[in-house]
Amino acid sequence: MKKSVLFVATACAVTVLLAGCGGGGNASRDTVRAVGSSTVYPFAKVVADGFAKANSGMASPIIESTGTGAGMKLFCGGVGTQFPDIANASRRIKRSEYDDCAKNGVTDIVEIQVGLDGISLGEAKGGLALPLTQTMIYKAIAANPFGKPNTAKTWKDVDASLPAEPILVYGPPSTSGTRDSLKELILVKGCESDPAMKALKDSDKEQYDKICTEVRGDGLYVDAGENDNLIVQKLEANPKAVGIFGFSYLEENMDKLSGLTMNGVAPTYASIADFSYPGARPLYVYVKLAHVAAIKGLKEYVAQWAASWGKDGVLAKAGMVVATDAVQATNARIATELTKLDPATLK
């Protein structure tokens, strides 16, 4: 009972705060605003469409594709109508981002895992069909693989089993959650194939991060921006190039693209769902609890996610890989009860 009274009192106080801090003369906002991941963006739009159909008296949410990192900065900027209500993310919020949120008064955040995706490597139909491993990818695009400047110009320079074709990789920018997941799921794994790099993690974390996660800047890895469709277009124009993007973009363009295997496993719905594909990753939305009682439609939009992510739901039809029944049940409860994220679980 005390908990309910406290929540109502807090919500009322926040409503007053929001009404008075709209900025630019906007004293209130009747439209949900979400920012963040370009990978989550098309799914968030699908949920927004479902929300609009189910709630005819409410405005359709505004969804912006800013990249996960940039979205988190906007989300964590503060409480008030000039700040987003939701951050979409293709990787989990970092502890440093949570701390930035807290510094700006964003202390109550709800974390909801909405489904799965995979960091896919693809090429145009009729391309090189490179059989890659995490180590090969690391050696091809890292700035200083195993601590030495990257001098590899062709795939054969990376591994004798690969063709003597020039390395050209189009991938996500530094603001993207896909870039963060690329580092964690692929580059670090390739880097740690050298025991000395594993040891360096404990002795010099800063140097370890530099060696294991920085990508080359000599033009062989091209930052293609937040629009993954642009990568698709570049691959069509250059059949010998490789692209790195979310699985949904690969699946959506299977008439034009082919997926490349990683460690012998192709990126498919099944291999991502069971995590046998090395690039499989969860997708998240983060909700600002302080805005729930004040922004019209926010609670309903969050509930629409849970109503959309089942095996026969609109998100699956849109290409999202569905999480297990247990994960769905846990996160449906979080979406309903708006359970606060425990920052002790972050890193």
What does this structure look like?
With 347 residues, the chain is α/β, with parallel strands linked by helices. The protein folds into two domains: 2-116 and 282-345, D-Maltodextrin-Binding Protein, domain 2 (3-Layer(aba) Sandwich), CATH 3.40.190; 118-280, 3-Layer(aba) Sandwich (D-Maltodextrin-Binding Protein, domain 2), CATH 3.40.190. 42% of the residues lie in helices and 14% in strands. The chain is built from 16 helices and nine strands. It has helices at residues 2-20, 41-54, 68-75, 95-103, 134-141, 155-158, 177-191, 195-203, 205-213, 228-237, 247-252, 269-273, 289-292, 298-306, 314-317, 325-337, and strands at 33-36, 62-63, 86-89, 109-124, 169-171, 221-223, 242-246, 257-259, 280-288. Strands 1, 2, 3, 4, 5, 6, 7, 8 and 9 form a nine-stranded mixed sheet that branches. Helix 2 (41-54) links the parallel strand 1 (33-36) and strand 2. The longest helix has 19 residues, at 2-20. The radius of gyration is 21 Å and the shape is globular. The two termini are 33 Å apart. Residues 1-13 and 19-27 have low confidence and may be disordered.
